[in-house]
Write a structure and sequence with these properties.
Blueprint (H helix, E strand, L loop, with lengths): L2 H4 L1 H4 L10 E4 L6 H10 L4 E4 L5 H6 L4 E4 L16 H4 L5 E4 L1 H9 L3 E17 L13 E13 L5 E6 L4 E5 L5 E4 L11 H12 L8 H16 L4 E5 L3 H14 L3 E7 L7 H13 L3 E5 L1 H8 L5 H22 L5 E3 L4 H7 L26 E3 L7 H10 L4 H4 L19 H20 L8 E15 L2 E14 L7 E2 L4 H14 L3 E6 L13
Parallel strand pairs: 1-2, 1-3, 3-4, 4-9, 10-11, 10-13, 11-12, 13-14, 16-18
Antiparallel strand pairs: 5-6, 5-7, 7-8, 8-9, 15-16, 16-17
Helix pairs in contact: 8-9, 8-14, 9-14, 11-12, 16-17
Bound molecules: xanthosine-5'-monophosphate.
Length: about 525
């Protein structure tokens, strides 16, 4: 077994700044991660646990409060997710949201029933009691609802804190408000005073500590890293993106040249990206980083291949071979550091109250060798992307790196539809650079979650300066998203689209037509391959 799995607790002990945070039990709501982020925005640590987590798992991080999330089930269904009843009897204050409200109602003897077609979207609530949870809330106050059930009868001794304008119990509490609940979603931005409600819960009702700050995180991680690696050598795999760059900067700050950052250039990165990343880390921050140009190898392996899955496999496997060889050349390496983030950990089930065996060796490209000899160190495994960006800022990484859109491990290999050749990489890199430059010029880049170009192996007829042209088609894509799991196509202003298409067709030899992708995810995926 990988030693990191055996010693998981040793490597990730509960730090002081994580105590007095919030344990969130996830009953399957699409908003659970949002709850965790909203709590952290108040500088309070939060972690998401499985609904099956026992009271002892919940208490491990010494939380000051518990939040029960929403979820798609109905509490009266036979197979409805339930929780350890000891949690509901604990001394910790509890906030139930939507399904969490129904759970509290049912557990304490109230009655929950269906309301037919449900209530989804904007609604208004009228507070009955403006102390405690709803202290400082307007009347009426705009909220966001998403539910098919309601509380028909409150538990004995409980009170309604607010009704919605259609007479549904919108918020309720027990007599001392150590149990509070909302039918609406305070974590969603459409709930206008949601932040005040969460603050009331965290700081007025519960005794949470606002100690989850970037400065604390960095300081604690530095101490942890120093303790964990001793005088062992650490290899940091850098991909050109923000997560791995932040890891490299963190290790540099903690142990200096005892860590070596390695960037394997597969030749499928955006134009100049590998060079810019290495420059900003080495010249800007003095990080000991080496770039290995493996592009010819990758290209030769990709020759003639047009199947998307086979291309991904080829790139992933070659990455492993190259990485293995390069690591071997670096001498005695005891640790490998990588930029795994909290959403990856949640998806893998680790934080869900299960044991550590399910830790995923998530990697940007295609997984690492299974018989890897190093121990894995993942200092960002507690963070969301926006928190990583804040850590990066604090560590002095340049904004151009911190704000960079996500980029897939197989890089342009999955954005060049059909065969990957040097010439096609050149065409796509040039077109994509123009596209992204224009998004910066028009101040749109930071509004968009991810934007990129796709080279399509179809030629179309055009006319330029009275000459017939017969060249490649380019697709451009821009999406809004929070986590890449779902995405909406970005409503790009027509003037920007015009500028992009004109400049690309005029300046990139080999492209004579540009199309804009208006597919959301689902049913599409973000990448085309
Ligand atoms: P899809 O295309 O699945 O992409 O909707 C969702 C997000 O994941 C990125 N992506 C990858 N990231 N390795 C990665 O590190 C990969 O193999 C990979 N494939 C897709 C994609 O860019 C988008 O942000």
């Amino acid at each position: 077994m990988n030693p990191i799995l055996r010693n998981w607790k040793k490597y990730f002990p509960v730090n002081d700044f994580q105590k007095k945070g919030v344990a969130i039990l996830d009953f399957g709501s699409q908003y659970t991660q949002l709850i965790a982020r909203r709590v952290r925005e108040q500088n309070v640590y939060s972690q998401i646990l499985s609904p099956e987590a026992s009271i002892s798992i919940v208490m491990e991080s010494q939380p000051a409060a518990i939040i029960l999330s929403g979820g798609p089930s109905s509490v009266y269904d036979e197979d409805a997710p339930n929780l350890d009843p000891d949690i509901l009897e604990s001394d910790l204050p509890i906030l139930g949201i939507c399904y969490g409200l129904h759970l509290l109602a049912q557990h304490h003897g109230g009655v929950v029933e269906s309301i037919g077609q449900g209530e989804y979207g904007f609604s208004e609530i009228l507070p009955e009691n403006k102390s405690g949870l709803l202290s400082g809330i307007s009347s009426p106050s705009q909220v966001w609802m998403s539910h098919g059930d309601r509380v028909k009868q409150l538990p004995e001794g409980w009170q309604t804190l607010a009704y919605s304008t259609n007479d549904i119990v919108a918020a309720m509490a027990n007599d001392d408000q150590s149990r509070v609940a909302t039918q609406f979603h305070p974590e969603v931005a459409h709930t206008k005073e949601g932040e005040i409600i969460l603050q009331n819960f965290l700081f007025e009702i519960a005794d949470c500590s606002p100690t989850w700050t970037v400065g604390n995180f960095i300081q604690e991680q530095i101490e942890l890293i120093q303790k964990q690696v001793g005088d062992g050598k650490v290899l940091v795999g850098v991909s050109g993106g923000v997560d791995s760059s932040v890891v490299a900067a963190l290790f540099h700050k903690a142990i200096g040249d005892q860590s070596t950052a390695v960037l394997i250039d597969h030749g499928l990165m955006r134009k100049d990206e590998a060079k810019e990343c290495v420059n900003s880390l080495s010249e800007g921050l003095g990080i000991n980083i080496h770039k290995f140009d493996e592009s010819e190898l990758f290209l030769s392996k990709l020759k003639g291949e047009i199947d998307p899955e086979k291309k991904r496999k080829i790139i992933g496997n070659q990455f492993i071979y190259s990485f293995d060889r390069i690591a071997g050349e670096m001498g005695e390496i005891a640790f490998l550091a990588q930029g795994t983030l909290y959403p990856d950990v949640i998806e893998s089930g680790v934080s869900k109250g299960q044991t550590a065996q399910v830790i995923k060796s998530h990697h940007n490209v295609g997984g690492l060798p299974e018989d890897m000899e190093f121990e894995l160190v993942e200092p960002l495994r507690e963070l969301f992307k926006d928190e990583v960006r804040n850590v990066g800022k604090e560590l002095g990484l340049p904004l151009s790196l911190i704000e960079r859109h996500p980029f897939p491990g197989p890089g342009l290999g999955v954005r060049i539809i059909g065969e990957v050749t040097k010439e096609r990489i050149r065409i796509l890199q040039k077109a994509d650079q123009i596209y992204i430059d224009i998004l910066h010029e028009d101040n749109l880049y930071n509004e968009i979650w991810q934007a990129f170009s796709v080279l399509i192996p179809v030629q179309t007829v055009g006319v330029m300066g009275d000459q017939r042209t017969y060249e490649n088609l380019l697709g451009i894509r821009a999406v809004s998203s929070t986590d890449g799991m779902t995405a909406d196509w970005y409503r790009m202003p027509p003037d920007t689209l015009t500028k992009i298409s004109n400049r690309i067709v005029n300046f990139v030899r080999g492209i004579n037509r540009v199309v804009y992708d208006i597919t959301s995810k689902p049913p599409g995926t973000i990448e085309w391959e």
